[in-house]
Design brief:
The chain is mainly alpha-helical. About 40% of the residues lie in helices and about 5% in strands. The protein is built from seven helices and two strands; from the N terminus they run βααβααααα. The protein has a two-stranded parallel ribbon with strand order 1-2. The chain starts with 5 loop residues before the first strand and ends with a helix.
Length: about 160
């Protein structure tokens, strides 16, 4: 069966909750949104102060207190892998998503041409089985600390 439609979701929960297996069984392509973790996986966000005052990410539990500190610890390990490979953390994250199958198409957002070019270059990064295992070791499914949305925030997404 050919690819019939696109399913859009964020995070790695789809690996555990059966969504990815189901869409694959049905021949449906999968489009993960926010494959850079709302910019977090760029490695450039180190503090809540890195966001503008009106940035919605300021209210995300993943960018708050202990959850943010734990997520930064994971990010440091991802950044170290990217540096060893001579790529940016964003490129590593996108290359990882692309390595999950041709039926998965990430849609990273960007406001700058330089970031667009950086993101597009991820298609040229070939990750070995060892690379994928190293990434999975430091950033397994479920590693993100904190809820994806602030209370009531998910309703705004589904309007």
């Amino acid at each position: 069966m050919g690819m019939r439609a696109a399913w859009v979701a964020s995070g790695r929960d789809v690996e555990d909750d059966g969504v990815l297996a189901t869409v694959r069984e049905l021949g449906i392509g999968f489009v993960p949104y926010s494959p850079l973790g709302r910019g977090f996986l760029s490695g450039r966000i180190r503090s809540i102060d890195d966001f503008d005052a009106d940035d919605l990410r300021r209210s995300s539990p993943r960018f708050q207190g202990e959850d943010f500190a734990r997520n930064l610890e994971v990010l440091e390990q991802v950044v170290a892998i990217a540096e060893r490979m001579g790529v940016t953390p964003s490129q590593l994250a996108l290359a990882w998503v692309l390595a999950q199958g041709t039926d998965i198409v990430p849609i990273p957002g960007t406001r700058r041409i330089a970031n667009l070019e950086e993101n597009a270059a991820a298609v040229d990064i070939a990750l070995s089985a060892d690379d994928l295992a190293a990434i999975d070791q430091v950033a397994p499914a479920g590693v993100a600390a904190g809820e994806c949305y602030a209370p009531g925030g998910i309703q705004a997404v589904h309007r």
